[in-house]
Fold this protein.
Amino acid sequence: MNKTLLAALAAFVTAAVALGGYLALRPVTSSGAPPGSAAASYDPAEARETAHDADDVFHGTVVRLSGRRTIAEIPSRLYEVRVGQVFKGRLTGTVTVTQPQGDPALEEGGKYVLATTSWHNEDDEHGLLPGSRPFPAPDLTTPVRNAATGAETTLADYWRRAAAPHEGARH
């Protein structure tokens, strides 16, 4: 890999980690859902922005931690994740998802909504969208309250709407 490409990749990953740290530490706004419910830390605008920027948004089950490696000087964990319901993109089967080691580890058997971007490599790996966190989602039928409308919906419908193309979208 040439030095210019490596430097650009390192700058991107550094910015992504910094943004993730900022987003993790800023105050969380409540969506009106009960504390501890799946959607308590998102409002529809944020989920929509996350889904808009991701290549793929899907509900997946962590099969196992499959390894560790350093990507552009950032220690990372690699997970095998079985793709369930897809809200955006065309992923199927089991994919490898990379996550910076500084983020909370994913649990084996845990179910999450993941917003990822493709590494576009021969191993078809996907990294968590910079600044996003895996969204714990053991049950997609969990009711949540939409902060914008006040209406109750399911977690699956919440993410389906967030990932739906909208006016002005850059796809």
Q: What stands out?
A: Strands lie at 56-71, 74-88, 94-100, 111-118, 125-128, 135-136, 143-145, 152-154.
